[in-house]
Specification:
alpha+beta
Length: about 140
């Protein structure tokens, strides 16, 4: 998280209008999730750990990202592994330079298929922030 905030601050110092981070940037891509056969005790422990390391929106992490974006005057698009109840998502979170979450795009992480799977994906943003979402999509944020 510290490095992420530093990169946002550096983007602001370089007078960038926005910064885009890749998929699953926070807390990191869960490559180890797919280790071990289904039903294996170690694999079950890894799956339980997913719940512990995933992020929620809103949270202290998203609040901090908003504060750093505002202080740096930079719009942020960042890939997260998000948890909503017991469902995990590969989420692209969009934050404008005024400290607001202006939208997010979710792809459910479907266990057993060994991939990030787009199911019921949607982009949510208000009219004022469409440029942040549009630019992130054009850059390849999603």
């Amino acid at each position: 998280m510290e490095q992420t905030c530093e990169l946002i601050v550096d983007a602001g110092r370089a007078r960038a209008a926005r910064i885009v981070f890749p998929e699953a940037y926070l807390p990191g891509y869960l490559l180890w999730l797919w280790n071990g056969p289904d039903g294996d005790n170690f694999a079950c422990q890894l799956h339980d750990l997913v719940i512990e390391v995933t992020l929620t929106i809103p949270s202290d992490v998203s609040d901090r990202l908003c504060r750093v974006a505002k202080r740096s005057r930079v719009a942020v698009a960042i890939g997260l592994v998000e948890r909503d109840n017991n469902t995990c998502y590969s989420t692209m979170l969009f934050i404008d330079a005024a400290d607001r979450i202006c939208g997010h795009y979710r792809m459910p992480l479907v266990g057993g298929q060994h991939c990030w799977t787009p199911v019921n994906s949607s982009i949510m943003a208000n009219d004022q922030n469409q440029d942040v979402v549009r630019d992130a999509i054009n850059i390849g944020g999603i």
